[in-house]
Amino acid sequence: MTFWPLRARKCLHDNHGVLTETVPIKSIKIYFRSLLSVPAGAFAFCVGAPLLMASPAHADFRVCNGTQNLVGVAIGYRAQDGWNTEGWWQVPASTCATLIEGELQSRYYYLYAEDAARGGRWTGNINMCVAENEFKIVGVNDCFTRGHQRMGFKEYDTGRQGSWMVQLSDTPGSQEGQN
Fold first, then answer.
1. Which of 110, 123, 167, 175 is deepest in the core (most CB within 10 A)?
2. pLDDT of residue 57
3. In this predicted structure, what is the pLDDT of residue 66?
């Protein structure tokens, strides 16, 4: 959780619109009195705008599709109940998808992806279970006997970063993760 320094904002009006300035919290009483003489709409903007602008940083695991085709993506990770694999996220061309929302809990994540149009794959050497339709599978052993398929996932070492992004591309070797 990020804690922001306690600051107040004052609004000044000039011929070009509304300006904002950060001021120490001690000065808030002085500016509050001057804000009472500001029209109601401007006052609402001055009070509400800082709340809208100060959004917290988002931590998550994202996959961006840098190809011209739809890509199906599956992810693997270690959880309290063991190894999990989940899929399929459909990531259209030139867009991104969030696979895990919130602060990442593991150091290692595993990814497998398929190009829906051309059949290309982004794989690795870590075998995990997948299914043909939407799935969440606990465990990575005995995929076939449990009615699943086994695919090679690529390992991404996040170094315990809070967020991570993988860029999928048509160019070999350019899909390395980054935070």
1. 110
2. 52
3. 94
Q: How many CB atoms lie within 10 A of CB 10?
A: 17
Residues in Cβ contact with 35 at an 8 Å cutoff, skipping those fewer than 6 apart? 10, 11, 43, 46
Q: Residue 44, SS3?
A: helix
The structural domains of the chain, with segments of one domain joined by +, span: 7-53, 60-178
pLDDT (tens digit per residue) in 21-50: 333 333 333 333 444 444 555 444 444 544
Nearest CA to 8 out of 38, 22, 89 is that of 22
Q: Please tell me the distance from the alpha carbon of residue 25 to that of residue 22, in angstroms, as a whole number.
A: 9
β pairing state of 164-168 and 60-65: parallel
Does the CA dihedral 94-99-100-105 come out positive or negative? Answer: negative
Angle at 140 between CA 86 and CA 100, to 5 degrees: 25
At 34 the three-state DSSP class reads helix
pLDDT in tens, 150-165: 999 999 999 988 889 9
Pairwise CA distance, residues 92 & 72, whole Å: 9
